[in-house]
Amino acid sequence: MGVQTKSDKLHELVEEGAEVEKVATGFTFTEGPIWNADERCLYFSDMPGNVRRRWSEKGGVEEVMRPSNKCNGLVYDAEGNLLVCEHVTSSLVKETPDGRRETIASHFEGKELNSPNDVITRSDGTIYFSDPWYGRMPGFGEERDRELGFQGVYKLAPDGGDPELVVGRDEYEQPNGLCFSPDESLLYINDTPRAYIKVYDVEPDGSLSGGRVFFQGIGSGIIEEGIPDGMKCDEEGNIWVTGPGGIWVISADGEHLGTIEVPENTGNLTWGGDGWKTLYIPSSTSLYRIETKVASNRLPYMS
Predict the structure, then answer these.
(1) What is the pLDDT of residue 221?
(2) What is the pLDDT of residue 97?
(3) How far, in Å, are 8, 115, 131, 141, 194 from residue 149 at the CA level?
């Protein structure tokens, strides 16, 4: 499988004729990839398998945590702490380099969160995370009743405190992937079953305004066909999002440039490697990668 081109602009981002390479397999459903530049390895989660793993060129696949509370999204903050979305505990957790563990978000207005799913950080230390209820479904989490009556997106201030809802209570059916534009002036959020991406202006205090649909029609929202889930932005402002057939590449102007074809349904993606130009793609039972001409949008942990 290769690159399905809809615009020649895609060849400025990925070599024409490039194909994904399978680097590991044998998992249940992979998610939450994050590259550790110091260790030169990729950490990723396997939600149904209830395990967190790492992969490196030198060491292959290794287990690092079992059980993992069916963790999903992972990201580092600027201080090197790992932020972890946990389905089973309905919490966002911070793990420090020395092994300490701290729950930094678990409730909103006195009610337990649904199941934090994806998480990103802003350069000032603000944390944003999505909270659909996939982690309360069989397989991907632990089946149990919901306490909140909606699925939201929240931010945590740099100095901590309670989560603050940054979107409307009924704005999303299942908010999922998040990413910033390169200058952090825009925040993109996708809705998995509605198969679209919305974009917001980010105010100096971290609040969001001017929400509007950026792109729609990323499939039909049916999981088996491939869905919008994980999402990242490159250094030029293009959006890379999971969807039917693999990774959809969408320009900052909202043009679908093409699709990086992957032989399995994809759950997420992240850049790593030298110069942050190797795109790693956890896809159901396997982990794939492809070299790109463009690098990741520089996030706080990449400095």
Answers:
(1) 79
(2) 94
(3) 45, 13, 12, 18, 18
DSSP 10-36: GGGTS-TT---EEEEE--S-EEEEEEE
Joined together, the tokens standing for residue 253 give: 């102007």
Sign of the torsion formed by the C-alpha atoms of 276, 255, 259 and 184: positive
**What was the pLDDT predicted at 74?**
98
Which residues fall within 8 angstroms of residue 275, CB to CB, at 6 or more apart?
Answer: 295
Phi, psi of 67 (to 5 degrees): -75, 160
Radius of gyration of the chain (CA): 17
**pLDDT score for 222:** 80
How much is the pTM? 0.97
Q: Are 33 and 266 in contact (CB under 8 A)?
A: no
Query: What's the average pLDDT block by block, 10 residues per block, for the chain (303 residues)?
Result: 91 95 97 97 96 97 97 97 98 96 98 98 98 94 96 96 97 98 98 97 97 96 88 98 98 98 97 97 97 97 90
Query: Where are the domains positioned within the chain?
Result: 3-302
Question: Rounded CA gap, 235 and 170, in Å?
Answer: 32
CATH number of 3-302: 2.120.10.30
Largest CA distance in the chain: 53
Tally Cβ neighbours within 10 Å of residue 110: 7
Sequence-separated contacts (24+) of 217-225 with Cβ below 8 Å: 218/190, 218/243, 218/244, 218/248, 219/195, 219/243, 219/244, 220/195, 221/192, 221/193, 221/194, 221/195, 223/265, 224/265
214's CB contacts (< 8 A; 6+ apart) are 188, 196, 197, 198, 199, 239, 254
